[in-house]
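Narrative of accomplishments. A recurring question from our advisory board has been how the design workflow behaves on a single, concrete structure rather than in aggregate. To address it, we present the structure tokens for one chain from the evaluation set, followed by the sequence designed for it. No filtering or post-editing was applied between the two.
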């Protein structure tokens, strides 16, 4: 008996018109004694094609808007290069950023940020579906100096940080407002923190600067005081008192938006 993977791959090929419908008769899953239904196979292949199209459009809506009339053609090329290898339809879309980066030079010549935009969109889907449990604990006010040096933040367990060559969040905001499709974006490094909120279960996305990226990457084993000291080191020309005040404000903000989900005791 043919595997479900073989069946889907064959019917996907029929949808893309790479394979004649008659070849589906060779699938040993056809119930013995029943006549092969050519029209039914073609219809089911189209339904699978619609499924792939709907899934990629729902996961990559910004890419679809940028590509516009080229979207369907690009989608078929993607499925041809990376045919589905899992019956979970969302999984069939996971290699789209790789496809854009490796096989779409002409598209990237026109929209050089597109592979990064696709990565941004796929990461959001991954976090929505991740079964990671987010443990939330009480937050201790930082007014007490002893707390400031003995406790550190607990990072949201779903947190992912991406560094992009282009200002991806700015591009997303422009696309959402109906602008920016034809704008030429120059490379401008950007950092994005993306995570799932433990209460709303929605994905939250925060555009962060390089200092915040460094502090987040070092959080989890440093106290709040250590993070403030690290921030002062990163900004040697700035007034240390203002830097510490900014760090305290940033910590409070990260707790407020559930990027930090509690405190942990640091050291003995």
């Amino acid at each position: 008996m043919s595997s479900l993977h073989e069946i889907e791959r064959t019917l996907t090929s029929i949808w893309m018109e790479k394979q004649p419908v008659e070849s589906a008769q060779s699938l040993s899953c056809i119930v013995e004694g029943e006549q092969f239904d050519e029209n039914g196979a073609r219809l089911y292949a189209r339904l699978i094609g619609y499924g792939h199209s709907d899934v990629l459009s729902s996961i990559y809506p910004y890419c679809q808007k940028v590509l516009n009339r080229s979207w369907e053609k690009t989608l078929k090329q993607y499925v041809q290069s990376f045919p589905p290898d899992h019956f979970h339809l969302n999984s069939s879309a996971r290699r789209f950023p790789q496809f854009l980066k490796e096989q779409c030079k002409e598209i990237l010549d026109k929209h050089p940020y597109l592979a990064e935009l696709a990565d941004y969109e796929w990461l959001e889907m991954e976090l929505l579906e991740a079964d990671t449990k987010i443990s939330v604990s009480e937050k201790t006010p930082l007014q007490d100096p002893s707390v400031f040096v003995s406790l550190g933040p607990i990072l949201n367990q779903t947190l992912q940080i991406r560094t992009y060559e282009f200002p991806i969040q700015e591009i997303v905001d422009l696309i959402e407002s109906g602008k920016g499709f034809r704008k030429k974006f120059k490379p401008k490094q950007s950092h994005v923190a993306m995570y799932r909120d433990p209460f709303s279960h929605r994905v939250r996305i925060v555009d962060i600067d390089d200092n915040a990226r460094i502090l987040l990457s070092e959080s989890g084993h440093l106290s709040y005081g250590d993070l403030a000291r690290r921030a002062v080191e990163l900004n040697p020309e700035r007034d240390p008192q203002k830097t510490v005040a900014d760090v305290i404000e940033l910590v409070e903000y990260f707790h407020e938006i559930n990027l930090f989900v509690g405190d942990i005791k640091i050291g003995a």
